[in-house]
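Input chain follows. Return structure tokens only.
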Amino acid sequence: MSGAVGRLLAESAFDAKIELTGADRRRMAASRAVFERARLVRDVYGATRGFGPLVGYAADADPGVQGLGLIRHLAAGQGEPLSPAVTRTMVWLRLRGMTAGHSAVDPELWQRLADQWNAGFTPVVPRDGSLSASGDLVPLAHAALAATGARESQLAWADPRDGAASGTAEPAEVLAGLGVPGVVWDARGALAFVNGSGACLALALHNHRELEAAVRVAAAATGRLAALLGADPDPYDDGLSRVRNQPGQRRAAALIRAELPAGHTRGPQRPLQERYSLRCAPQVLGAVLDQLACQERVLLAEADGCTDNPVTVDGTVRHGGNFHAAPVGLASESHASCAHQVALLLERQLALLLDPRSNGGLPPLLAAVPGRDSGLAGVQIAASSHLSRIRQLGYPASMTTIPTNLDNQDHVPLALNSAAAVADVLARLRWITGGLLLALAEAGRRTGSRPSGLWARLADATPPLLHDRPLAPEITALAALALTHAAPPTAP
């Protein structure tokens, strides 16, 4: 895993800034000039003509009226908001894309938006309502409307670093507190802002980074489980992976081997061939790593591209469909499938560790006093439920497309729906992971293992299971600790 997505996200973090270079400004000014010349001699979508299926009708002669009408009618989203971090990345992606010099956005408008972003202004953006077809029109329109500071807009985060705990306020109030003015949209600027894949891409990038970390945790957990049980180390040997010729498998096997003590050998009571959840972990996690490498290339390419319509290129205005987010949608659908594979592996490893037929003589369900205590029975029941829900959420959103917008949008990718489902999948993967980590911490005590590194930190974070107790808080805490430990690098 290269960490390239993490490094990209670091550029949109709360302490980051975005600025125009001289070259950026010249490209943007040249694009704007091409656009202004074109609209005087030919029809240009959204400037001289209406939007979507109303392209056959004339646009308002006032670009301000046209632009404000666009974002007003699209502010129809619902549901829970995107996290402040994802929203910040979303706006940053739109600003970044405009600097390529194809969007014909007025540099002064860009600067107003950048000033808001640099000051920390973060709109509250509903997650649901986008087709990701003509870009993420609905969520981006909510952000655009909030940027005006208008009373009709939805809320902005009062302190985006703290998310929902910070509360929200009217955008005009937040902008005033930050000392930055609202934006006055023109038709071209408004269309360029909402006509892109910023929302689904932002969420997919954040999902990708978490999934990378989850694979690292899964590999570490596999190695720890093999060490505690005395499982055969052969499945994790580099030579075995080398002859398979899958690069991800070699990386996964190396991560697992790193958790085995020096000189680890198969215990006398362990089978020659373990269950697949142990024996085939390099193959499963390796396949996920290879898929993540593919999706990383797709997502980074999208972040570097221009997803507007129309665009200026080679001195002319071109109309097309660069806003169609099929690449992001398919990447998110792959994320869902990959996350399921990791979740299934860990849920099965939890089952193996709790089963007296396979856990090397440990008590059933790791109960302190079986019968009086039930140990991790509730943890396993919940993990099974989480895995089932992951399977429901993993259905490809692109297979649910519905023609809409007077059939103008008759093929849509629903990429934000996919990315949102992946975010929900990852929450459940965290809960399954936390359950296994809790079981590993308890099993380590029962086997007399002396933990170090991550495993010592996890053991310190959860007390011995001497009597039954509610374990939900410990599950989430252990998962968060491990994912933070395993997060891919973000420094350049």
